[in-house]
Write the structure tokens for this entry.
Amino acid sequence: MSSPALGKIVRVGVVLRNQITFYWNNIKQELMIMNLFKKESSSIQNVNIQEMVLIATRIYLGLLLICISVLVLFNGLSYVTVSVTILEPSLDTFEQLEAMYRETFTYQCEEITMVYNTFSTITPIFHQVCSSSFINSNWTTTLYGYGPKANSYLQFDRPLLSKQYQIMGWLCAEASAIVTSYLKNVNQQMIISTTTMSRVYFESTITDIVNQITRRLPVNYRRGYNLITELIHNSLLSNAFNTDWLLEFGNASNGYILRSVPYEYANDTCNCVVSKDCNQSLRIGPLDLVIPGLVVGCLPIDGLRMSSLECFFSQSCINTIINYLDYYMLMDGSLPSTDFSPPIVFNLSIIPLNRSLLSRFLPNSSIGTIMDELFIEEWTNKTNYEKYFSTCAPNICHYENIQHHTLLYVVTSLLALYGGLTVSLRLIVWNSLRFYQKFKEWYKPTNRIINIT
């Protein structure tokens, strides 16, 4: 910056400072001699009245400034609750206001009863076995061993395995029917809501409903299933595969001609009279051939419950079963000749279960565990909050906004109080000083002259 310009700025600064000082001294001088009590002091004859009015003016101005400051601070810092009403707001407005004024926000539904399936759809996803080839008639019929050789040979436990997977197919269909019927009733239920739920509360409520369904439905199913199976077990009736009771022939010396005896499992350590959990490995093929996860129980459904799907996730395991479709035990109990060789070309093609699919059940989980959950992998729930909002059709909402007083309110309040405040202060200040002066004059000691003679 050049020297002439800098000098000009300095001169302007000096002039401005001198003007400010001049005006400040004038204001201070005016304040020192200001008399706001001319009217009150005009009728008083007292040598000290001039001093008193100056003091009164200064006290009055000081108190007035303090009172105005207090009023401004009180009104400016205090809060006021403003009640706001909005008619027929949009969804965006609703969510915005609900987020801002959650504590005081209320929204009335015009339609307080709503059908559940209007805005929510619950869909079960079943285990893949219920849509697999293992429960269709082609697989179960082939396993059973229908054909000309079926009457001449014993087929080990293949017919039993066939019946187990027929039962599983029926159970899959029954589970689907139960779930469909139950969801139909749920979807027709009415939800009563007098006030509009927020999106978060709405989704939480629907989630709770879905959780109740997923807990209650399997429990009700297991209760009915257990009742039926207990009745069957306690009836002591033999099944077609004689896996619970065997028929034993006798003669006169034995005291019976024909009687039923319990089938013994686990080296004669368990029978179905004592426990319905007796089991042994299901046999298909040679004695040393062990197929994982296949079990024989007292009833076909008992063996099915204790079995697993482990084998049917493996193509090689499925091929092993198919290899021995023609492996029969002769009627005299002897095994086929040792020169039996599995076929090179399979007469049946079965796709194994997909191990890569996400599942809450492990491949070696018991089928009973899957049955108890109605073969359901998971429940999906699709909610539509926009449909809920439009069905609720809120037409009015209220909320309260807590805020500071506006500047206009502060100024208006100050102007409303200013007149009364000034009059009150003038009376208080002037009369207080007058009283003090009179008291001082009355209390002032008088000088007395005492003559001593």
The chain has a mean pLDDT of 80.
